[in-house]
Write a structure and sequence with these properties.
With about 150 residues, the chain is mostly helical. It has one domain. Helix content is about 70%, strand content about 0%. The chain is built from five helices and no strands.
């Protein structure tokens, strides 16, 4: 979780402005990234406490509950890593490949990047929205804005 907070601080201090210049978008248009990092940090906090809950499940008495818990926790971890990969790795890749590309190509890559998380990690409570902004509702972080 500390790495997520460091990434978010670096993004807010300098990288957001640089990315705005590279993709030719306003810095306010890129605020979805800051929200994504806040959501990632919140989800990591929830998962950290979930490990405590799992530790105290009785292996004999709560075997079925433990199996479901392990499955849901691994699914949540997988989806969280996927979101973090989009927020960090693919963002850096977008900026690196945008240098020297045509403005139309940059705009298309940026639109594709911004829409990338649509449908990832959605649950039944979050059928509307989508994109990065939709990724902050109804997730492992408790279901609200953070």
């Amino acid at each position: 979780m500390q790495q997520v907070l460091k990434d978010m601080a670096a993004l807010e201090l300098s990288e957001l402005g640089k990315m705005a210049n590279v993709v030719r978008a306003s810095a306010t248009d890129l605020r979805f990234l800051t929200r994504a990092y806040k959501q990632i940090a919140s989800c990591r906090r929830v998962l950290r406490w979930a490990y405590v809950y799992g530790y105290f499940l009785d292996p004999v008495r709560d075997a079925a509950k433990r199996g479901l818990f392990d499955h849901l926790q691994s699914d949540a971890n997988r989806l969280l890593e996927r979101l973090h990969g989009c927020a960090e790795g693919e963002r850096k890749q977008l900026c690196a490949t945008a240098k020297g590309a045509s403005p139309a190509d940059i705009a298309e890559r940026y639109r594709s990047y911004k829409k990338k998380p649509r449908g990832r990690g959605r649950d039944r409570r979050d059928q509307g929205g989508g994109g990065w902004a939709g990724s902050r509702r109804g997730k492992a972080g408790g279901g609200g804005d953070t």
